[in-house]
Design brief:
The complex is a heterodimer of chains A (183) and B (310). With 183 residues, chain A is an alpha/beta fold. Helix content of chain A is 24%, strand content 28%. Chain B has 2 domains: 139 residues, 3-Layer(aba) Sandwich (Rossmann fold); 151 residues, Rossmann fold (3-Layer(aba) Sandwich). The chains are: A alpha/beta (183), B alpha/beta (310).
Chain lengths: 183, 310
Amino acid sequence: MERGRIILKSPRFNLTLQRLAHQLIENYNHFENTCLVGIQPRGVELSDRIYTLITEINPGHKARYGKLDITFYRDDFRLRKALKANETEMDFVVEDQRVVLIDDVLYTGRTIQAALTALNHFGRPKEVELLVLIDRRFNREVPVSADYIGYTVDAVDEAHVVVDWDPDPDKNEVRLYKKKQED
Amino acid sequence: MGEQAQFSTKHLIGIKYVTTKDIELIFHTADEFKEVINRPIKRVPTLRDVTIANIFFENSTRTRISFELAEKRLSADVINFSASSSSVSKGETLLDTVNNILSMKVDMVVIRHPAAGVPVYLANRVSANIINAGDGTHEHPTQALLDAYSLIEKLGPLSGKKIAIIGDILHSRVALSNIFCLNKLGARVRVCGPPTLIPKHIASLGVEVSHDVESTLRWCDAANVLRIQLERQEIPYLPSLREYAQYYGINAAMLDRIDKPILLMHPGPINRGVELSSDAADSKQSIILQQVENGVAIRMAVLYLLANRN
């Protein structure tokens, strides 16, 4: 099995997370009327850490935090094997709220398209921004772009980028594979 | 990208023909759909390009509405067909009827029929996914799934739990599906009813048999009470309903006497005053209405998982 090339690791990985958290704080200050929404399952790994960092830096913040599963909103259902659904934890509505969607890798943009549809089922947000750790900018299939980007990767279509999260923050890394890895 | 969810069969004919893993996958998926149907907007676009025919050759309230609601919540296109208002009464055969419906590009068929074996007969002859919504006295898989799901919600994992099925076991497809399902989940099952309404050799399915309701209630953690199916009784199995109610009916006084919190279930429709008195059916121990709510989530899960199997 291909090992994959490490393209981002600590300390830079953690500095990137810090920067993303600070960028959010810079724009949202105390996060009034703001919801951070992680996309299940892999985006939640990132959003959990961003939410923790924001809470450490700015303990009095008012951000609400939710996790959104988009399995039932995918546009490729019946074109590929079904995916196991994950938990949605949204104990608020996003009506008139500012929303920051959080995902690990922005690739074709279709996940974000599905997430925007799913989000609409929780109300009409005032505005939606997107935060991603990795932006594969040359592989978009729909017009989606991120507002906060950790690291930009220019890779061919067949390549596969995986964020490996580890309980030890110093072992987090991003790997680039030449081909999609079998799950 | 998440984990894959692969169902082992293309059709849901009966619980006998699915694996324990399939059942667990259905329950996992139903958890997420239960969250969906408790949202302010209860609809997801998942099955937006799927057409489903509900073909009912037998009367039904709960199952038909529950399937229809599940299909609509998943954004499928739905056609409803009931035998009484169709060309079946003009002498059309079952296979012709179904093939005519399928030629209108239908992807999935939910079928209920008074004859056992109709779903498997269709599954072998047509290309659509077939979901059994009750065939004669054979199986009613989605009912057993929602019963087990409701039990797990209240009791936790069913391994080692004692579940009683009380009433007309002989004519009940719910009983048979429940026995298969509970066995696969590791529960202990006891059937209870008058000797004439318990099939011979049912113990070979790995269940205990009793003819005494009160001691069965004392034994179990939950009791699934079934209706006496008068429409299927070609010869009299009981002297009278009144006598059945006296010996096998469950009432609040009996529940108080056994002095142990057991759950009461019923797949509906209830004959109040026969197998369950009103004070028992409406008691706090009854989870009959939760069963109905869970029915929609379970059917959404089944439709979701099968729609992907072509």
